[in-house]
Design a protein that fits this description.
Length: 280
Amino acid sequence: MPAPTPKVWFITGASRGFGRLWAEAALERGDRVAATARDVTALEPLTERFPDTVLPLRLDVTDRAAVSGAVERAVERFGRLDVVVNNAGYGLFGMVEELTEAQLRAQLETNFFGTVWVTQAVLPVLRAQGSGRILQVTSEGGVRAYPGIGAYHASKWAVEGLSDSLAQEVASFGLHVTAVEPGPYATEFAGGRSLRTTEPHPDYAGVREATGKEWVLGDPQATAEAILAIADAENPPRRIVLGHTLPEIEEIYAERLRVWREWEPVTTAAFGKRIVAQTA
C-alpha cells in the first residue's frame, strides 16, 4: 500500500502552546506546515529540525492584509492547503464591568476577527481544491461560561456561531469545519503568558473569592494525536471537546433544556399568529 500523501497545514499561533505541539506532531509524521507567529524567531527550533517541510511566517492575525499575504506564501511554497488551524489567541480575565473598550476590542480583534480573516483568506484555496478542513480552536469556554472571563467567552462563542454557519455553507464544496473545544490544559495560557487582566474593582472581591476554583489541568501533549485524528477523519465532527470537561458540559446543557421546557408555555405563547415567509 503506498504511503499517504503528506498533508499541508497552516497553523496560526505556532510559537508555543497547542499550536507548537500540533505543528511538531504534523512535521514529525512527514507533513508540511506553514507555521505563523508574531515573533518568528520563536519558530527557529522548528526550522532547524525540519528545514524542508516547515515554512515560518511572521503574522499578526489582526492584520488582514498580512493574513492574505501569509496564505499566498504558504500556497506558493507548498502548492495547496489541507488543514487550517485557527489557534492564535489569548485570554482576558476580568469582570464585565471592569472591561475597558480597548481591552474588549483587542480581545475580539485577535480571537474573533483574526479567525475570520484567516478563514476568509483560505476559503478560495480550499474551494478551488474541492477539499480541505478548517479547525477553529475555540475552548470549552465556547459552550459554557465562568464569571470573570466574559470577554474571552464572548470571543469564543462568536467563533462557534460563525463556524457552525460556515460548516453548512461550505459542505457542498467538500470542506469540513470543526470547532475544537479544549478544556483546561497546562499550557502558557494557564501559566499566564497568554493572559491579560483587567484592573480589579474592589466591589467584586467577594465574587472572585466565591467563584475561584482549583483547576485540574490536562497534559497538552496528549492533544496531538486527537488533532491528527481529526485532520485525517473522512467525516470529522462539527464540534469536539478535548479533555475531561464533557460531563460538566452535559450537565449545563441538561439544565438549559430543563429551563427551556419549564418555560415552554411562555415560549409558545410568544409565537403569536403564524406567518409564512420565504427566505432569499
